[in-house]
What does this fold into?
Amino acid sequence: MSAPTCVRCARPTPDGYACSNCAGRAVGHLKELADLVPAARDVAHGQSRRGPAVAGGSGARLELNLTAQARLDAITNTLTTWARAISEERGIEIKEAA
It folds into this structure.
């Protein structure tokens, strides 16, 4: 039987999932996504402003964007589904967000 390899780069790995380099990169990408979500939701909800500040205001308010909101919801659902599937396969308990 051959040694387990990383599912991403095919380097040898002790557990057969991902090497530490690829796992670290995935963690970094997921953290970046988590940091971007609040701002993306603000834009989708029309709570952000654009353009230069004008007298008495801070730029034009963006319109509510239901398409953007639906896309964000779909991304959130996909990531949550994958996280649950991986946690069940690996026997890891996921803490629910408060």
